[in-house]
Design a protein that fits this description.
- There is one protein chain.
- By secondary structure, the chain is mainly α.
- It is built from five helices and no strands.
- It has helices at 3-13, 29-33, 46-63, 67-73, 77-107.
- Helix 3 packs antiparallel against helix 5.
- The protein is flat.
Amino acid sequence: MSAAVLAVARHAHGYGDRVSEQPTAPATPAEDSGAAPLAPVDVDGVRAVTIGTILWAVALIALLPFTDTLRDDGHLWWIGTCAVGVLLGLSGLGYTVRRRNRLRRRDG
């Protein structure tokens, strides 16, 4: 973009000279607030996967009494979605538990 076009655009939008053509590196949160850098959170994922799996199971159980209504309205796939959510959650739970145990053994 030419300098003339930039000048017109700045004036039209009320930016004046506040807009710089040179990009600046964004400041990190620690630089902005003066706070110490944060340490990474030690999370193994088991709790998150467990809660998600339980929520899919609750949704599945809540929808089962309405199977006929869902079928009539063309929304029977809602039950299938919940069932797949439970199955994927169970496989994810197995994965995260094995990972957590492996990490605990490694870290001793």
